[in-house]
């Protein structure tokens, strides 16, 4: 496995693979990898001749008061992890390699980014769409893998690829959870022992919501209200949002007609965590 930091190196390596007729799978990440990322990498390895992982904490997708500086980083550990899963290449650029002086082109999306994380993090999806477009142009993969954990991001990327005729197949992968249910996240490392226990309220509430739907609930407003009440039983939790939205347009719905995405962002102390289910 190779680790490179320039666009040129990626292009040269991928060009060689292409000459040999190899297919390329791609997993964009911000690093500090865990088994959630691992599931995407394993799928990329399994479904393609070559697998590329990018590790880039993208400044453009963080708001001015967010955790860009403190976001956890460990390239050495990440490299070992990727290698153990059979990845062929890590692309780990510095911000200057991705955003040269005078950078002024952006990919922006309307509608799908108006609700959920797009509402709480106004610059977030512009940063995500811009960096993912750039990474797709650099790597030119056949397939790219994204987690359902970031459900709105997955919908946004699928929509962008369709809108802009990008020649890549976007593959969504299920949420990987800790044994006790908490969705795996690089940001879980911010949690103190007490907060880690409190964070379980997210997955417990997701499972509770799923059960309500299985038992016949069709009213999205009632479902969301019940989920909010459950989160409020945890003193360390503060709701950013819990919403039921159309799975394609990300616009709020009042009825649970499939496919609906039920998504939440909840602060546990200062750490903002997300979780969701689709019904
Ligand atoms: P990140 O490094 O947080 O930007 O995540 C990179 C990719 O890994 C995104 O497509 C995420 O949705 C995906 N991912 C992160 N956590 C999980 C998880 N627990 N299960 C599945 N996919 C995940």
UniProtKB/TrEMBL annotation:
<feature type="binding site">
    <location>
        <begin position="184"/>
        <end position="187"/>
    </location>
    <ligand>
        <name>ATP</name>
    </ligand>
</feature>
<dbReference type="InterPro" id="IPR003721">
    <property type="entry name" value="Pantoate_ligase"/>
</dbReference>
<dbReference type="Pfam" id="PF02569">
    <property type="entry name" value="Pantoate_ligase"/>
</dbReference>
<comment type="similarity">
    <text>Belongs to the pantothenate synthetase family.</text>
</comment>
<protein>
    <recommendedName>
        <fullName>Pantothenate synthetase</fullName>
        <ecNumber>6.3.2.1</ecNumber>
    </recommendedName>
</protein>
<dbReference type="GO" id="GO:0005829">
    <property type="term" value="C:cytosol"/>
</dbReference>
<feature type="binding site">
    <location>
        <position position="61"/>
    </location>
    <ligand>
        <name>beta-alanine</name>
    </ligand>
</feature>
<keyword id="KW-0547">Nucleotide-binding</keyword>
<keyword id="KW-0067">ATP-binding</keyword>
<feature type="binding site">
    <location>
        <begin position="30"/>
        <end position="37"/>
    </location>
    <ligand>
        <name>ATP</name>
    </ligand>
</feature>
<keyword id="KW-0566">Pantothenate biosynthesis</keyword>
<dbReference type="InterPro" id="IPR042176">
    <property type="entry name" value="Pantoate_ligase_C"/>
</dbReference>
<comment type="subunit">
    <text>Homodimer.</text>
</comment>
<feature type="binding site">
    <location>
        <position position="176"/>
    </location>
    <ligand>
        <name>ATP</name>
    </ligand>
</feature>
<dbReference type="GO" id="GO:0004592">
    <property type="term" value="F:pantoate-beta-alanine ligase activity"/>
</dbReference>
<comment type="function">
    <text>Catalyzes the condensation of pantoate with beta-alanine in an ATP-dependent reaction via a pantoyl-adenylate intermediate.</text>
</comment>
<dbReference type="GO" id="GO:0015940">
    <property type="term" value="P:pantothenate biosynthetic process"/>
</dbReference>
<keyword id="KW-0963">Cytoplasm</keyword>
<keyword id="KW-0436">Ligase</keyword>
<dbReference type="InterPro" id="IPR014729">
    <property type="entry name" value="Rossmann-like_a/b/a_fold"/>
</dbReference>
<feature type="binding site">
    <location>
        <begin position="147"/>
        <end position="150"/>
    </location>
    <ligand>
        <name>ATP</name>
    </ligand>
</feature>
<feature type="binding site">
    <location>
        <position position="153"/>
    </location>
    <ligand>
        <name>(R)-pantoate</name>
    </ligand>
</feature>
<feature type="binding site">
    <location>
        <position position="61"/>
    </location>
    <ligand>
        <name>(R)-pantoate</name>
    </ligand>
</feature>
<comment type="pathway">
    <text>Cofactor biosynthesis; (R)-pantothenate biosynthesis; (R)-pantothenate from (R)-pantoate and beta-alanine: step 1/1.</text>
</comment>
<feature type="active site" description="Proton donor">
    <location>
        <position position="37"/>
    </location>
</feature>
<dbReference type="GO" id="GO:0005524">
    <property type="term" value="F:ATP binding"/>
</dbReference>
């Amino acid at each position: 496995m190779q680790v490179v930091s320039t666009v040129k190196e990626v292009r040269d390596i991928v060009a060689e693979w292409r000459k040999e007729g190899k297919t390329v799978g791609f997993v964009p990440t911000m690093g500090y990898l865990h088994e959630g990322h691992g599931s995407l990498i394993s799928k990329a390895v399994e479904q393609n001749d070559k697998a590329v992982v990018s590790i880039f904490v993208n400044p453009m997708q963080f708001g001015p008061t967010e955790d860009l500086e403190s976001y956890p980083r460990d390239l050495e550990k990440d490299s070992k992890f990727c290698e153990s899963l059979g990845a062929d290449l890590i692309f780990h650029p510095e911000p200057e390699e991705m955003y040269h002086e005078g950078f002024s082109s952006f990919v922006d999306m309307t509608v799908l980014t108006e609700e959920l994380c797009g509402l709480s993090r106004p610059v977030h999806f512009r940063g995500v769409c811009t960096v993912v477009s750039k990474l797709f142009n650099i790597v030119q993969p056949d397939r790219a893998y994204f987690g359902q954990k970031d459900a709105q991001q997955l919908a946004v990327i699928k929509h962008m690829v369709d809108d802009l005729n990008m020649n890549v197949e976007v593959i969504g992968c299920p949420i990987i959870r800790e044994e006790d249910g908490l969705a795996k996240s690089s940001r879980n490392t911010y949690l103190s022992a007490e907060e880690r226990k409190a964070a379980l309220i997210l997955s417990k509430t997701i499972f509770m919501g799923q059960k309500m739907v299985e038992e016949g609930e069709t009213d999205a407003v009632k479902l969301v209200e019940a989920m909010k009440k459950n989160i409020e039983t945890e003193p360390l939790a503060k709701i950013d949002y819990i919403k039921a939205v159309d799975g394609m347009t990300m616009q709020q719905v009042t009825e649970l007609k499939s496919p609906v995405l039920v998504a939440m962002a909840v602060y546990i102390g200062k750490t903002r965590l997300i979780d969701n289910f689709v019904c």
